[in-house]
Design goal:
With 192 residues, the protein is an alpha/beta fold. It has six helices and eight strands, in the order E-H-H-E-E-H-E-H-E-E-E-H-E-H. Helix 4 links the parallel strand 4 and strand 5. The longest helix has 14 residues. The radius of gyration is 16 Å and the shape is globular.
Length: 192
């Protein structure tokens, strides 16, 4: 595990109630404990006084579960921001496009990012790829991210576990280092 004790920040992506609605409607996901692992990361970073940045998706489509007036737009309680923790609102997959995230990170002298949230193969992946391309030392937390089953263009069912694993494989070593919650917590425990 690389040393994460210097100039590191936690990025929590789209941990919003829309995903609870998706599950309630019968969509199947992987990593059922991901939100609990995100809460562990939040406690770890906050306990060490390390910066936390929250990202919310705000759809421009009134039919979307992420539309600002819909209940799904609200954050899950386990990932709620504390006073003083920045919340960045995005309208596309990448948290870096159309938002002040990069400026906020650079003005805070952040070089290393620990990234978690939903969904692995959409906003988490896009943000992680851009973080790597922008020169950040990105670390994607495998057990603190999740996705859903999808039907492909040939009507094939792709299981959430397979999509998640392939996304991690695509990112690891190229755009980011894939780590576990325990890896991160052990590393930041060295912060004094």
């Amino acid at each position: 595990m690389p040393d994460l004790t210097s100039r590191v920040a936690l990025i929590v992506i789209d941990v919003q109630r829309a995903f609870d609605a998706w599950e309630a409607a019968g969509r199947r996901r992987n990593n059922p404990d991901a939100v609990a692992r995100i809460a562990d990361l939040l406690r770890g970073f906050r306990g060490r006084g390390l910066p936390v940045f929250h990202v919310r998706h705000e759809s421009t489509d009134p039919q979307s579960t992420f539309f600002p007036t819909k209940p799904g737009h609200r954050v899950m309680e386990a990932a709620r921001e504390l006073e003083g923790e920045p919340v960045v609102v995005k309208r596309v997959n990448s948290a870096f496009i159309g938002t002040p995230l990069e400026v906020l990170l650079r003005s805070s002298n952040v070089e290393r990012l620990v990234i978690c949230g939903a969904t692995t193969n959409h906003c988490v992946e896009t943000t992680t790829r851009m973080a790597g391309n922008l020169g950040f030392d990105a670390h994607l937390v495998r057990d603190a991210a999740w996705t859903f089953d999808r039907i492909g263009p040939d009507e094939d069912l792709h299981r959430a576990e397979d999509i998640h694993a392939m996304t991690l494989a695509n990112l690891h070593g190229e755009f980011a280092t894939v780590v576990s919650t325990d890896d991160v917590l052990r590393s930041i425990a060295r912060v004094t």
